[in-house]
């Protein structure tokens, strides 16, 4: 089989690998679609992020869907040929955080495509992968495998909403409307936010934000003062989701959030200096959000039932044979949001501005 393996900065290779064999409680899955995530791009562009660096060749990818190829002897409720979304979250289930229900903080997490531990946890950008049976989530006949691969980034947004403690009837600001921010907006609409304002520096993600349910969108590159009206009376937003990883965005959020509002930092952008006087004087709750676990099943349910339609987020689908071009396209935020790799296509060219399904 073929795997998409990163060896270091700007060193992405399509390599041959042996097809793995599933154990008694596992499944062998033929991967269908894989979405390129921001962390994948950090590995591709820089060889890592922060202090995390690739120290050995590592297959990338964790946003995947597929078709069950074969099932282990002890697997029940799943069959060959079944179409599934695949959760990349594989906590140990035994450490103190797992026992407290904080599976996303598992001390022995095996999250696909992560260079945090060594040896690295290999990713899911391969033609075949072996998964645990609990990672498989069946998708409806009407849901494409391309859309099913959005379950992972949607889960990130849903966990961020959980961290906010509820948004029903609230005024909400989302800063950064890439795939995570836009899918988060879909989740906010489903969760009952009264009004959602989205900001970015590029028109294309703002268009996607509108399609995902934002009530108003602001381009702060062309209108740098657009948020000023929301500073009135100590701020107007009950909750802010900062999904860009930008220091400027985080600081501007403190200008427009209400006293005792909740500011959830979703995007990763490195260490920044916090305006502590403002944070203290407004009694703002600053909350981080990291990955997800139980939200994956909810994300699949929402996609299956059509409660969230993620199609606007997918801007290109590229055959696995052109993986390097796919990563280069995903790096260009002017041209793309979510770029997916099609592991079932072998000959058709890049599909931009939409997507094709091959099965």
Give a concise summary.
With 359 residues, the chain is α/β, with parallel strands linked by helices.
Provide tags for this entry.
25% helix, six-stranded parallel beta sheet, single chain, 19 strands, globular, 359 residues, 27% strand, alpha/beta
Walkthrough of the structure:
It is a single chain. By secondary structure, the chain is of the alpha/beta class. The chain is built from 10 helices and 19 strands. It has helices at residues 38-46, 96-99, 145-148, 151-164, 179-190, 203-212, 247-256, 276-281, 295-304, 323-331, and strands spanning 2-8, 11-16, 26-35, 48-49, 52-53, 58-59, 63-71, 83-86, 128-132, 136-138, 171-175, 195-200, 216-219, 237-242, 257-265, 285-288, 314-319, 338-342, 351-352. The strands form 4 sheets. Strands 3, 7, 8, 9, 10, 17, 18 and 19 form an 8-stranded mixed beta sheet that branches. Helix 4 (151-164) packs across helix 5 (179-190). The protein is globular and about 65 Å long.
Oligomer state of the chains in this structure = single chain
Largest sheet: 8 strands, mixed
Using the CA coordinates, give the radius of gyration: 20 Å
Q: What string, H for helix and E for strand, traces the elements in order?
A: EEEHEEEEEHEEHHEHEHEEHEHEHEHEE
Mean pLDDT: 93
What's the helical proportion of residues?
Answer: 10-25%
So what's the overall shape? Answer: globular
Number of strands: 19
Total helices: the number is 10
The secondary structure category is alpha/beta
Distance between the termini: 19 Å
Low-confidence stretches: 347-359
């Amino acid at each position: 089989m073929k795997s998409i393996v990163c060896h270091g900065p700007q060193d992405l290779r399509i390599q041959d690998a042996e097809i793995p064999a599933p154990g008694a409680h596992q499944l062998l899955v033929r991967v269908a679609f894989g979405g390129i995530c921001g962390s994948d791009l950090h590995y591709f562009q820089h060889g890592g992020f922060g202090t995390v660096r690739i120290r050995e060749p590592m297959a990338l990818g964790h946003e995947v869907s597929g078709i069950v190829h074969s099932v282990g002897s002890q697997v029940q409720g799943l069959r060959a040929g079944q179409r599934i979304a695949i959760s990349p979250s594989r906590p140990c289930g035994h450490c103190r955080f797992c026992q407290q229900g904080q599976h996303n903080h598992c001390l022995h997490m095996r999250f696909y495509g992560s260079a945090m531990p060594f040896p690295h946890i290999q990713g899911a950008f391969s033609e075949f992968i072996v998964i645990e049976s609990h990672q498989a989530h069946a998708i409806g006949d009407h849901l494409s495998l391309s859309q099913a691969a959005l379950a992972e980034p949607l889960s990130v947004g849903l966990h961020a909403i959980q961290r906010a403690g509820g948004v029903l009837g609230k005024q909400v600001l989302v800063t950064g409307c890439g795939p995570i921010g836009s899918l988060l907006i879909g989740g906010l609409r489903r969760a009952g936010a009264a009004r959602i304002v989205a900001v970015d520096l590029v028109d294309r993600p703002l268009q996607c934000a509108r399609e995902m349910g934002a009530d108003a969108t602001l381009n702060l590159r062309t209108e740098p003062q657009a948020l000023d009206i929301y500073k009135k009376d100590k701020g107007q937003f009950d909750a802010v989701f900062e999904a860009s990883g930008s220091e400027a965005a985080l600081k501007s959020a403190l200008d427009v959030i209400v006293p005792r509002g909740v500011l959830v930092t979703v995007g990763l952008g490195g260490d920044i200096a916090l305006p502590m006087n403002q944070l203290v004087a407004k009694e703002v709750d600053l909350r981080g959000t990291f990955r997800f676990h139980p939200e994956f099943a909810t994300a699949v349910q929402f996609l299956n039932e059509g409660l969230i339609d993620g199609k606007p987020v997918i801007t290109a689908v590229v055959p696995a044979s052109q993986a390097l071009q796919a990563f280069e396209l995903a790096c260009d935020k002017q041209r793309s949001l979510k770029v997916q790799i099609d592991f079932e296509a072998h000959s058709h060219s890049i599909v931009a501005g939409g997507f094709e399904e091959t099965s």
